Amino acid sequence: MLSQALESGHRIGGHIVTLFLFTKSDVFTVLIPIMLDPEEDQKNKPYRPLPAGRITAQNAADVRWLLVPVCLIFSAMYSIKALACSACIEALSIWYNKFGGDKTGLSKNLLTAIAYTNFELGAMAVIGSSIDNIGACAVAFSSVVFATILHAQDFKDEEGDRLTGRPTLVILFPTFARMSMMIGIPLWSLYLSRLWKIDLVCSLAFVAYGTIVGARFMVYRTASAHKQSCKLYSLWFTLVHLLPGYWRFFYST
């Protein structure tokens, strides 16, 4: 009995790990948890279940569609707002994956930014938080920031994107893409520091960190460097989400 229980537990644990590996690279940026082309994953994310051989493409597709009603049911249990956000994310995911939404840099960034906005609104609905003016401003600006420099992630995926013929900004306009990171991240750091009334020392530190992160995309151009730059960018984007909390702590009445 004990051995059977241990074996069952091992199998369940293996399935949980498989599900997690589909979205491992999306933890920090909270992107749409999608199932990409296996050829691309072999280059960009070889640890994912399909290229790693943990699951077949058909079984992965079955699990993907099985999770849709499960997600919608759980969302409906929280609130109508959570259900609406989940339904919108699912619609955007289908558009992105089935109708060519990922085929151009503009549509990819736009669809992902809209989905990200729904992720944030959905999370607020789940925790039962009402959205005041500050909350709406925070969601709006984090979404705009996300849309304008989302292609930070495309640098580390360039090899796989070229393999599958996906025309990202990094591939089509490499110089512009790098310049946008080098200029965009520091400018956003400065603007957001002013917007949320961050003190001088913290503002200087935040802008300095953003400048370093942005410069890395311009200076370091190897695949390993791009992966590290994306991690540092993810940390920077996490800090962006903490700035409204700073304002609430020091200035909210």
From TrEMBL:
Keywords: Membrane, Transmembrane, Transmembrane helix. Its main location: membrane. One of its GO terms (cellular component) is membrane. Coiled coil: none annotated. One of its GO terms (molecular function) is transferase activity, transferring alkyl or aryl (other than methyl) groups. Signal peptide: none annotated. CDD domains: PT_UbiA_3 (cd13965). The chain crosses the membrane at residues 12-36, 133-150, 170-192, 198-220, 232-250. It is found in: Membrane. InterPro entries: Prenyltransferase_related, UbiA_prenyltransferase, UbiA_sf. It comes from the Eukaryota. It is a multi-pass membrane protein. This is UbiA prenyltransferase family-domain-containing protein. It comes from Suillus fuscotomentosus. The lineage of its organism: Eukaryota, Fungi, Dikarya, Basidiomycota, Agaricomycotina.
